[in-house]
Amino acid sequence: MSSVITRSLERGYTGDQVMKLLPCVLVSVATLIMATTLSAQMPLSNSGSAPDDPDVRPPVTRDDVRIVQRAKQILNSPEKWNRADNRICPVEAKTFSLYCALEKATDQVSGNFKHRGAAMQEARFVIGDVALDWKKYNHRLMDYNNDPKTTFADIQKVFGLLEDRIAKRLTEESPVKTK
Description:
The chain is mainly α. The protein is 58% helix and 0% strand.
């Protein structure tokens, strides 16, 4: 700060003029620091452009129905069910959690997995409907999968409800065709 004052005095400003400008300079610097700090604290989604909204409802497509059908095929037996999900889904895995089956199916069907994609989000909402204590879950898909009360039949029920839910939304959101 003293170098700014020194340079101002060297350029011919009086001490009085420098002292009048000083509050403006300090406010400007403080504003820049605050703006930088606040923007650094904003959570970003996977795309890096917007906050991560757990209640977002992206539009559904026919691919979302296919994603659920494929996930159900991937996780089609109790032997393939990973009851200890950590949301890390190795490509070479032989067992799958609910989350990882949906992630793998999304990669296979669309090649474009998104943590908040339509199939993933609708799966979270289905869990909200079937698990009475879902609010205790930090991560709905992982924690429902890992819940000792969840059975393999429950996972299969989620797939069925999920497919129905997406198909219904697809019908409701499709534009009506006129003749």
